[in-house]
Amino acid sequence: xxxxxxxxxxxxxxxxPALKAAVDNGADAVYFGYKNDTNARNFAGLNFDDxxxxxxxxxxxxxxxxxxxxxxxxxxxxxxxxxxxxxxGAAELGVDAVILADVGLLDYAARRHPGLRLHLSVQGSATxxxxxxxxxxxxxxxxxxxxxxxxxxxxxxxxxxxTVEIEVFGFGSLCVMNEGRCWLSSYAxxxxxxxVGACSPAKYVKWExxxxxxxxxxxxxxxxxxxxxxxxxxxxxxxxxxxVNGATYYALEEPTSLNVLExxxxxxxxxxxxxxxxxxxxxxxxxxxxxxxxxxxxxTLASExxxxxxxxxxxxxxxKVSEGSQATLGAYSRPWR
Length: 337
What we know:
By secondary structure, the protein is an alpha/beta fold. The protein has helices at 16-24, 50-61, 80-93, 103-112, 129-139, 152-160, 184-189, 264-269, 284-304, 312-319; strands at residues 8-12, 29-32, 66-71, 97-100, 118-120, 143-145, 165-173, 205-210, 213-218, 221-227, 241-244, 247-250, 257-259, 274-277, 327-328. It folds into 2 domains: 3-174 and 256-332, Aldolase class I (TIM Barrel, Alpha-Beta Barrel), CATH 3.20.20; 184-250, no CATH class. The strands form 3 sheets. Strands 1-2-3-4-5-6-7-14 form an 8-stranded parallel β-barrel, surrounded by 7 helices. Helix 6 (152-160) links the parallel strand 6 (143-145) and strand 7 (165-173). It is globular and about 60 Å long.
């Protein structure tokens, strides 16, 4: 039976209502960030000030749920103290773990707060067990979040060769980059999620309405055009439609959502410690809906084991909040390899 090997469900919280939605709908842990550029989801109107953070931590921990604080951008020259203060604040707040990417900051946290549990962020771009074991050996990292570029067999190989807990993404938006190495946003705007904390920073985004059409631009670059009855997505360079050799299409990546429901038994069987839901920039409704259905699937796996089957109701509910019109197993399944 798989009951004892069911991964934790880690859910996003871009706001206090989203955090409560995750906790109320069955998340084992929530992850959130400061309202500043130490956070790779530093969008206007989202994230936590000190008061909201304390309330969120109390709400989750009083219900026996864990709280993970993401300080997952890279410290900028001359501003190391800003990121160090964020780590100090996390320790003072009593979070269950801090998610870090910057090796200098990992070193600082390990030396200054030896009792603080450290997780290696997906922004750390650890795609091999050698990289994971380095983070464990040098900084005492207890868990690593793997980028969404590995096959399931590659994930299994990492797990087989490390004692660090491994966390993988299970639902949400995909990225064509190996996280932590994004250059597209930098190319268009001079800023990236790895530094200022947001892909396609809002100050560079422009919406232009014309008869029958909505155009979206990023720092003057036309990203897409949408008809009146077509949902207009947020303008990120990787998910734009561009004219290439006379044809207009999604030249880099078509909007689609990762959804691992059908391979949950395999994910559990290889020893994945936690499954992460992407979406700190999404609404509390999104968080509630995804958490509820992922929780139901994991609970069914725990009780049914090898008899586990995906229920259409789960897929139908998740489809309502998916990015784009289709779901994918992403890099996990590459039958052509």
